[in-house]
Predict the structure.
Amino acid sequence: MNAFTLGVGAADSRLGTRFMLGVSALLASFVVLVALVEKQAAPFGAVDATLAFAVFGWGIPVVAYSAVARASEYGRLDDAIATLSRHGANRRAAVLGVSFGAMLRVAVLGAVAAAVAVLVAAGHASPAVIRDAATSAWIGALGGAVYVFWFSLGSLFGKLGRGRFVLFVLDAVFGSATTLLAAPWPRAHLRSLLGGDAVLGMPEWQSTAALYFLVAACLVIGAIRVPK
Amino acid sequence: MSRLELKGTTGRALARTELVLDAGSHVVLAETSDGADELVALISGAIRPRRGVVLLDGEEPYRSEATRASLRSLREREALPFGRTVEVAMDRALSIRGSARSASDVLGDFGLSNWGKRPTASLSAEEARTVALALALGGEAAALLALFEPLATGLPSDRVATEIASRARAGAVVVSVTASVRDAVTLGGRALVMDRGRIVRDVALLADEWVPGSPLEVLVAVDDPRRLAAALAADTDVSATSFDVEIAPQEIVVRGADPSRLALSVQRAAVASGARITSMTRRIPTMAVVRAASDAVMRAAYERAYRASAALPAPARAAAPAPLLDLPAPPATNPPEGGAT
């Protein structure tokens, strides 16, 4: 069994059924509640408002943060795989495996949460709404994946991996802008993909590319940070 | 034959250390506050030194997965790899190492077969250390064993000591870190004394050199200590005897310079006095006493180096303090020799 597979296995064991069910239930409740409230308050903008606030504003970042924190055993991610690396497992591959295991789960949750938000906020399932739900689900999956790698990178810095909290706060603060300051943060590009304000006037395909670039940057910096 | 090198290695508690350890058994006498567990973590590649480097056969365990696979460690707090049961978790660790042995074999070697089916989460801290030690000693030959308090687990001490000795003989570098002088003596080999993160002494002969200058002490359990003490009184190999009939009515402490002659003297005295000896054990100094002795050795070395240094001026004698009041000198009671009387 190679170190990557072992890392995925470690993520599986830490993000067990009970944790995932609990997180899913909380996320679904939050998204549905916000969708119903928004629908009642402003039926025409309910979908956008629910996606912007409940799903991409708080839901996905908080779920990704919780999943990474749990997969890192609430400490540093590289310390969390010490039980594997001490016996000779490749640290880099094991860390990547843990992140990948968490990413799969959060991506699925992000996709489902985004689709549910669209369907509940729209209140009907016309072809246009279903198309919108599918697009949002794709963005939700991408958002979940980016946030997991983003917070995984943060978990490699600071005592007890507090770097992930710093990234969480910075993303919430700077990601809301549209200037150059917003460019490195996932929140800004995800908002752009949803049809919100663009970052530096970038079109959607560039925001998508920027998110992929962020993932690649996380992998490269992580590889430099974690020795074999 | 393996070789471990610490080159300017500095940790959080560990001060800059230069050390070369060849194959064999090495005991580091240290407490957690001295960086005992940190030393094990650094040696085993679990953490990166703040400065300097740790090399096992020229490779850094922290950076080389192959080197980590060739060493075994036991930390102050242990955790097994993920797995529902102890056996599954241990099998995972063994497979990462590339070991051909199974967890049930390893557990069976140490009489822990019934632990295999236990949930990993049910292990107490001590049990986790016991399993980790079994894992460290139970697999194939290793280049290095870095063990924190190896005799303080659930495994029998004599069995652990025997296993450690056999690994050392097989060419592994065995570094056992303990805060117990008794355990250090049991483990044997070269001993290093750590104090506040520094290795302050390298004691080649265990027990005889822990407290240089102090006599060897033998604790004798005897039915009549008074009679034995009387018989030992005239023995020239015995420097002192002491006993307290109130606190330990059947014990006597005998001091002397030579362990063999001391033991013979006690036996001769027992035969002569008719006192019946139940046991005779060497008294091991406590960690505090060894620390104090290490401090004294360092001070003495410093003094010697200071005085031997030609570059430094000889220490000046302290001048007499000036009188506080300018009073006339008192009349001399003993006039100098040759003076008028």
Remarks:
- The radius of gyration of chain A is 18 Å.
